Fold these 2 entries.
Entry 1:
Amino acid sequence: MKIETKCLHEGYKPGNGEPRQLPIYQSTTYTYDSTEHIGQLFDLTASGYFYTRLANPTVGAVEEKIAALEGGVGALCTSSGQAASFFAILNIMKSGDHFISAATIYGGTVNLFAVTLKKMGIECTFVDADASEEEIQKAFRPNTKAVFGETVANPALTVLDIEKFAAIAHKNGVPLIIDNTFATPVLCRPIEHGADIVIHSTTKYMDGQAVQVGGVIVDSGKFDWTNGKFPEFTEPDASYHGLVYTQAFGPAAFIVKARVQLMRDLGSSPAPQSAFLLNLGLETLAVRMEKHCRNAERIAFFLNQCEEVESVNYPWLEGSKHKELQQKYLPLGCSGVLSFVVKGGREKAVKFMDSLKLASNVVHVADIRTCVLHPASATHRQLSDEQLAAAGISPGMVRLSVGLENVDDIIEDLAQALAAAKEN
Ligand SMILES: *Cc1c(COP(=O)(O)O)cnc(C)c1O
């Protein structure tokens, strides 16, 4: 099946006389005829549902769909994208371990990696994603256990050279984890380029309608956990009577371990209702992504010609720094998110934002409705103009998430707001 078909048909296949739409199994628990059967479920020797923190049929159908979309052997839905990043790291590492991440990633992930994981004894070194293999190699240590990056970085909108990162990770015997939130499997499937683990904030395009917060981890099933660096996968787990994950679950060792250890102990599970809403979004993901891209391309082209605009950042634009990487990894387009700098700095950008009539001013991105954010007065508010410059954010920068409205209506709104800002 092609991706559009998978979006609609993977994960849930109703039998004769069963509901056409995925049912919401709003139940915390499941009944069994014998105590022995329940004992086998706890030992992981029988498969089946027993408690919704660990697995639920509605959530399970969505996991199966996302695994199919990314080309993985299994997936685990979490209550947020943050929980997905956290679990992906913690499933591989413990106190005393180290990993490497591209520096251009989502701000919430930077906090998780640089502050909270550090408190837990897991250290992260941030590297320039555009650095050479030799430069990045210097960041490796004997205790390095993974490499992390974002396909299209939020909010920098840089494109990651996934194959370069996969080659460096594999040369060092560690997995590559890719946050594929902005690209979605419609525009890029990182596993096809060598990624071992893919994560998402499903809150963004996968949902698309701004109705649920969620995350997901997908396991490619391709990484060799038996290479000696990952004893938690190859040595007996005392909490399951000495079970060895690589022996019991083969290529699905990573994703089963994440579920039965981390979801069991930390419990960041999504509600069945949220999984149902996420599935509604996934059904239309392929058609939505195509339209987001086409609209954003028209708008990037328009903004690039506006005299009120200093610069436009969108990898698809001719002459953009990552045009080649975009053509290689995102040939169908690079999502609906772009950023641009309004001439005249902070004051003009604020006036522009406040003059918009159609686009809404929200702390969200990747919605079906066009929305904008002014980083200097929202997400990066605490920073001085000098600090903003160091973070690569100009005071006049606006992040624009292009929605599915008629593109001429969006352009008209942007044009009138730019004119109003100029007059002021
Ligand atoms: C939003 C986002 C996250 C965090 O996800 P939540 O669902 O908000 O917890 C992680 N990575 C990227 C790229 C994001 O845009």
Note: The pocket of pyridoxal-5'-phosphate is lined by residues 80-82, 106, 108-109, 150, 154, 179, 181, 201, 203-204, 213, 215 (CB under 6 Å).
Entry 2:
Amino acid sequence: MYADRINALPPYLFATIDEAKAAQKAKGVDVIDLGVGDPDQPTPSHIVDSMCDAVKDPATHRYPSYTGMMEFREAVADWCKESRGLELDAATETLTLIGSKEGVAHIPLAFINPGDVALVPDPAYPVYKIGTQFAGGEPHIMPLLEENGFLPDLEAIPKDKLARAKLMFLNYPNNPTSATADVKYFEEVVEFAKENDIVVVHDNAYSEMVYDDYKAPSFLSVDGAMDVGMELYSMSKTYNMTGWRLAFAVGNKDLITGFGKAKSNIDSGAFDAVQRAGITALSSSQQCVADMNTMYQERRDVLLKGLRGIGLDAKAPKATFYMWVPIPDGYDSIGFSKLLLEEAGIVATPGVGFGEYGEGYVRFALTQSADRLEEAVARMEKLTI
Ligand SMILES: *Cc1c(COP(=O)(O)O)cnc(C)c1O
């Protein structure tokens, strides 16, 4: 019944986890869910209020612009300048997205012909690979190894794949490893992309979720990056707006144009009222973001101490709300997650759910209160591992 592209999809591990979680809940277990990367806090009220006003204005009720509301894209350009010094032309170098997942899924349609290669990291957000396959492209896996700081080893990409490669996906601060990339690495990527004629798509969904005075560099701030790439920013994690579906792409004007052409034939843009709320988010005080980071950092420190206390080799992430933790000997990632769920009522995501190179790790999301994290740690202390 289904097309090959659907039949070829790997079994969806997250559905299995959901079932196992539901089964524990049905048994009356007080489950602590550190599985999903979805902020637990509400959208800040000034953004919600702005949406309420916007939705009452009939001007927002009609089809939006394909490329996005000009005022939103101007707010995007201003925010990019203010936060990271990027000089962008709102009209040609920005594009509104209905979430960056939508963007990632549609980008290959604009740049990949059947048989072309896209370079995708592993472990990773699954959409890079699947979006490539949906467009008829061939994903080439770039392993993210701890010994390389979870950065792809560009030298290790085979020449024959490189000859066919059109696109490269990167994501720093990274989900699931929480690794960060420095400017020097981005400079290498730009040089590599120019040499090999590759379009770079940097998914910067965790751009603002940073700790200990760390600031995540923008890929586009590197010399030459505007010639080869685009960067995707999302309102989802930054402003607790995952349900609203709003993000934006910025970067090279020809790339933005091509991407926009693919999109305009598929979707009809983001709801104008949501974009108006987005303007409020981007152009108001960013104190809400700082407060959120303080909260996540406190949670991070609670979980870090707890995991180290039970002998796990956990490291303090500088960014993202994930902890990517090597699992104890004698388990694989699914087995260890199963133990956590069944013996401690804790949901953590097995690393292998993000790709084969995620094996050997579990991901904890800091999406529960510090108290709940303390409780999770107390339960883990009772485990015999
Ligand atoms: C959460 C996340 C996104 C955000 O996707 P939206 O569609 O904007 O909600 C994008 N990329 C990665 C790696 C993520 O973890």
Note: The radius of gyration is 21 Å.
